[in-house]
Amino acid sequence: MTHKTPTEIAREALKRLMELGLSPIPENYTQYYHEISGAHSTPEINWQHLMRRFCTEWERSQAGLSHLQKILAKNQLLDEKNTGTLAIKMEQLLQKWEKLPTRQVKTSLEETNHGASEEVNCEGWQKLFKTVIRHSIRDQDPPGALLLEQLDGLLNEKEIQADALFPLARDILQHQQELDEKEIKIRKGLQELLQLLLRNVADLLDNDAFLSGQMDVVRQAVQLADNHEELDLAIHRVKEVIFQQGKLKSEVREAREAIRDLVNLVLMSVESMAGENGRNHQQLESLVNELDSTTDWQQIRKIVSKVLDTSKNITKQSIEARNTLIQAKNRLSAAQEKIRKLEEEMESISQLVHVDPLTGTMNRRGLNAAFLRESARAQRLNQPLTVAIVDIDHFKKVNDQYGHDLGDQVLRGMAKVLQDTLRANDVITRYGGEEFVILMPDTTPENALDILERVQLQLGRQLFQAQDQPLKISFSGGISVWQNSCSQEQSIAAADKAMYRAKKDGRKRIYLADQANSST
User: Fold this and answer.
1) Apex 111 CA angle, 110 and 117, nearest 5
2) Rounded to whole angstroms, how far apart are CA atoms 249 and 255?
3) Under a CB-based contact definition with an 8 Å cutoff, are residues 386 and 444 in contact?
4) Which strand (E) or helix (H) includes residue 452?
5) Per-residue model confidence (pLDDT) at position 520
6) Which are the catalytic amino acids?
7) Which residue intervals define the domain GGDEF in the entry (predicted)?
């Protein structure tokens, strides 16, 4: 085996990134550089050097960079769990900060000419400065109001004292930064509080299946509170689900009221029948007593006739009561069936927040919920859970050359082939763009490979019309098996790596994760 030079490795790493359509950012470049070179560990990180540079840049005042932006960047670094990725992100951040020039702050006011125009200009800047400061001081902020009052006093003096003005301006800026930090802490605290509340509500409503979808969307929206687009999308979906469920809830309410009316009718019928039976029983007892006390044959015939009439009346009432109960039972069964169907429809509407609108497959929210369910089931039953990822070959070229309408047709066609070929209990998810993630419960990787090869065969028979020319589509795939110690992200990443190896080797093929590793 020939050893490649660092230059050859670097060139091949860049080529790999271009083939895979990945951005040439340091973490991607580093990953593939070490993968090609065969190195299994990254170079040792010089944390002392990084921290020294970070402290220097933290204290330095850079032009175009506020202290709040520094705080947000620092918090993002602290959220990173992987030390290697943390070092890379820290290096990127420091390089960005180090390129910024130091903010120039004058230590004294420049001497100006005594012309009238310059005096007016200075007064204008003073007014503008005071206006900006006033708007930056929040309402209900006594310390800020006190600082503003001091600033007004300084700016209203005939000769502005720079030695007094600059420290005060620094105090105002520092006070503003403290308020910003408090806002960040308050927002995070409110997010955590809302998450706790949502978890508690979900536990209380565990039997209310059609609310679970809404709760899931809200929980994930809270986690993405800084992403306005995700929040708007979540709000729109929840509103749509609430509107659809609201219409169905009124029908459920009517059906339940009908059931209550039927129960009342049955109770009234039973009560009426019990009353009639009591009266008939008393009448029969009276006739029996008359029969015991008489020996007159004519009188006996009359008594027997009355007994027969009473018996017929009892039989008639029993038949009527039975018919009433049968009708009530049928109506009750119909009402219960209606409620069941309505609740199923409400639950299916709730699941719309888990569905990709273009393909009709699950979206990432649906995948998260399905993975939790299927991984728990696989662990409980000691069964394999296979994770597969498939990516449509040359999809970007299809979009660029033929337009997004055809691209959408290809995505829908791919989803339909997956749905028609896979089993009912397999979970199909549009993971992003042209990628689909599939969960296959109780399936070995080898069986999953056979299934996906059938999908490849079926997809190859589908023809898409591209400018009056038939277009055939294929995909590349990767397969991994979930382990108890692995997370959802790790399982998908293993399948994803196998899939990219399949693309590198010519596309239109499916690799197992172990197979991809052995061919590296």
Assistant:
1) 105
2) 10
3) yes
4) helix 445-460
5) 38
6) 434
7) 383-515
200, 179 contact by CB (below 8 A): no
Burial of 450 (0-12, 13-18, 19+ CB in 10 A): exposed
Are residues 350 and 215 located together in one domain of the fold? yes
Q: 262: domain range? A: 209-354
- Is residue 404 packed enough to be buried (19+ CB in 10 Å), middle (13-18) or exposed (0-12)? exposed
CB 248 within 8 A of CB 349: yes
Q: Are residues 401 and 490 in the same domain?
A: yes
Pair (458, 368) in one structural domain: yes
Does residue 508 lie in a domain region?
Answer: yes
345-380 tens-digit pLDDT:
666 655 556 778 789 898 888 898 889 889 999 999
User: Which of these, 226, 239, 214, 216, lies nearest to 190 by C-alpha position?
Assistant: 226
Does residue 467 sit in helix, strand or coil?
coil
Contact status, residue 155 vs residue 129, Cβ threshold 8 Å: yes
Q: What is the DSSP letter of 4?
A: P
d(CA 290, CA 309): 16
Q: What is the Cα 144 distance to its own chain's centre? A: 40
Q: Tens digit of pLDDT for each residue in 86-103? A: 888 888 889 889 988 887
Q: Using alpha carbons, select from 143, 169, 142, 139 the residue that is nearest to residue 154.
A: 169
